[in-house]
Write a structure and sequence with these properties.
Shape: flat
Distance between the termini: 26 Å
Structural class: mainly alpha
Amino acid sequence: MKVKIGPYTNRLICNLYSNHMNKKYGYVDWPDNQDYEDHVLEAIDDGIQSVYNVFNRIWFDRRTQKIKVRIDKWDTWSMDHTLAPIILPMLVQLKETKHGAPMVDMEDVPKELRATKAQQNKYAKGGDVDPKHFERWDWIMGEMIWAFEQKNRDHWEEDYYGPYIESEDKRELFGRFEWTDDEGRKKHQERMSNGFRLFGKYYENLWD
């Protein structure tokens, strides 16, 4: 496999007005009765953006993100293992650099991280999210990362193996490993499977 993905294409955007309004009024609701200074900056912003749009149409809007992917036949012999070492560092970086968090279903997180509908509505009225909102997404991402870490371990099941038992039967050429913690192995696999389930469910929320 060989993958080369260039940066996303950009456009010129004037943030003079929005930066001013966010700094002055916050990021939630801007008042309808804005003062004279606000209107002046909005007009200036519109003028600058109209000039920017000329350059956007001439140059930036014609550019596309460059993506080159070559798949070798062995890449799909065990596709889940092939993708795991690519997905894992991307999830780790996203968790470290993300600037927001999506809404997640309460049944996907532990009870201590859940919020009731009443609690959510209470904060939503003030244009905010409940105190556990970002912790829930951190937990979800942590479970995804853990699952892919385990997938990158070729022999994680050995954590639950007992010692190697030599065969006493002369008709058998090899011995065997004994399970010492079969229940632990099952729980380990269930947690991995849940991490992959969360990855699929929140795939479209993997943005910075």
